[in-house]
Design goal:
363 residues, Arc Repressor Mutant, subunit A, binds S-adenosylmethionine
Length: 363
């Protein structure tokens, strides 16, 4: 798996805490040059790559020549499987037919569009620059070129209630996309939205209400055959995102670009989050060995968020006999979890409180 970070956006959304900003064309040019260097530096023709994810930031905000450059470089330096899933993130304001044509030509086969909401008032409040109409139009043109289209939605944005959330979901389903990511809004420290909430300029629904909206949406989507395969991810059967599934199963991955990290053979490598430092970098990554304990924790934290749950034998192989060591806890959680021979998973209607369950099951 390969992740490529494109830290460029045309504007910063009020809730966003990702490593992204508005930069001028000169920086973009230098950045992509460095990215090519980084890919070459890590070249490994023996690695079979089954998924590539170009995320950000907003990859669709940059000229398509840069995306072409990066994909070509990856093809020259890695063994990209002929059935690899190759995704790119896009914003409704910057998707164009010309970009989509190029993406298709270079082998990209999945588009993930940041929609967030299909209510104009809500979009404005969270600092999105597009309207409902522009978002629907973007999906329509993406569908012209790609079968595999995801849209991101947010749950818990100011002014949202269940009906308006359902309305957004309904409008997306009408477009016959095959994947929806619906994230609970996290109000991160330092973002404009968090400041507005603190200053009581805007109001968000309580956590309990958001969990209620979430549970209802899960049910609604299930009725439409969009199955939750991870806490925030819903797909028609067969359209689950391979790249996402890889992360949750602790598959090795390379991460290239500003703020990206890699996980290879039990080591994590972290890139700087400082643009100038990245542009001058000699790729002497900060490297840390992932201890057995951390592997156990990560496996529990990531795989319990999936529908399938955590593999009991895999934990045993890492030295954690969860059935023995957490017998009492498992017993007290029996209304919240399913325990089968091989897997522990969270019950369908308990995903809203999965963080607490996960904490209880850590060694
Ligand atoms: C890396 S962002 C890329 C967004 C995309 N470039 C766009 O313009 O919409 C990927 C997704 O993360 C989600 N996200 C970003 N900030 C979030 C937050 N504070 N809480 C929850 N989800 C968030 C959004 O749904 C977003 O579409």
């Amino acid at each position: 798996m390969i992740y490529v970070h494109i830290p460029f956006c045309d504007s910063k959304c009020f809730y966003c805490n990702f490593c992204s900003a508005k930069y001028d064309e000169k920086i973009k040019e230098k950045y992509f040059k460095k990215l090519v260097e980084e890919i070459k530096f890590n070249s490994n023709k023996y690695k079979n790559i089954t998924s590539i994810y170009i995320g950000g930031g907003t990859p669709s905000s940059v000229n398509e020549k840069y995306i072409k450059l990066i994909i070509n470089e990856l093809k020259n330096n890695f063994n990209i499987d002929k059935n690899a899933e190759i995704s790119i993130e896009a914003n409704p304001c910057s998707i164009t037919e010309s970009k989509l044509k190029t993406y298709k030509q270079i082998g990209i086969n999945r588009i993930s569009i940041g929609v967030q909401s299909l209510n104009n008032k809500q979009l404005k409040i969270i600092g999105r620059r597009h309207t409902k109409k522009q978002a629907i139009n973007a999906i329509k043109i993406a569908k012209k070129y790609f079968n595999n289209v995801n849209c991101d939605l947010l749950i818990g944005i100011p002014n949202q209630n269940y009906l308006s959330l359902k309305h957004s979901v309904k409008c997306l389903l009408k477009q016959k996309i095959n994947h929806i990511s619906a994230y609970m809004l996290i109000c991160e420290n330092g973002t404009k939205l968090t400041k507005q909430i603190e200053q009581k300029q805007v109001k968000v629904a309580s956590e309990d209400k958001c969990v209620d909206y979430y549970n209802k949406i899960v049910k609604y989507l299930k009725g439409k055959k969009y199955y939750r395969y991870e806490i925030s991810n819903f797909a028609l059967l067969g359209y689950e995102c391979k790249h996402n599934l890889g992360y949750w199963n602790l598959t090795d991955y390379y991460g290239f670009g500003l703020s990206a990290h890699s996980y290879i053979d039990g080591f994590r490598y972290n890139n700087t989050t400082d643009m100038q430092e990245y542009l001058e970098s000699k790729f002497d990554y900060q490297k840390e060995e992932i201890s057995n304990e951390e592997k156990i924790e990560e496996l529990i934290m990531l795989s319990l968020r999936t529908q399938k749950g955590v593999n009991i034998n895999e934990l045993k192989n890492l030295g954690y006999d969860i059935l023995k060591q957490k017998g009492n806890v498992l017993n007290s959680l029996k209304d919240f979890i399913n325990v089968s021979q091989n897997y522990i998973s969270i019950k369908d209607n308990k995903f809203g409180v999965c963080n607490q369950i996960i904490l209880d099951l850590l060694p």
